Amino acid sequence: MSRDTEVAKREPRPLAQSEQRPSVTPACDVYENRDEILVVADVPGVTADALAVSLEKGELTALASEYRDCDYHRRFAVPGGIDAAKISAELKNGVLWLHLPKVEAYKPRQIAVHAG
User: Whose CA, among 9, 78, 88, 91, lies 20 to 30 Å from 103?
Assistant: First the structure.
């Protein structure tokens, strides 16, 4: 049996700790206005199909894998007053935009003052 045949017949093995891809926490900016909280994260080189955004038990997670030398991973606690059903994400030119819209009850409003 030749050496090439032996290599081809080897069973796959899990990666050793030193061979695992590092995970990087991307820089983020968080903005809040009357209608939403906006999270902006730099994820250069990431495509939409390699990006997963999920919401589970009050945590919003963004994970980008299959990136050159590392994976991106960022997790946020979602505050009360966010309409979870309307959270959206968009990727533009290596920047991830996460829109967390507020429910009406949490939006600021003016209260009329009546003279008595």
Answer: 91
Series of mean pLDDT values for 10-residue runs along the chain (116 residues): 42 44 84 94 88 91 74 87 94 94 90 92
What global pTM score does this model have? 0.72
Class of domain 20-102: mainly beta
| Residue 24, amino acid | V
Q: How far apart are CA 94 and CA 75, in angstroms?
A: 18
Strands 71-77 and 23-24: parallel
Domain boundaries, the chain: 20-102
> Within 13 Å, how many C-alpha atoms sit on residue 77's CB side?
2
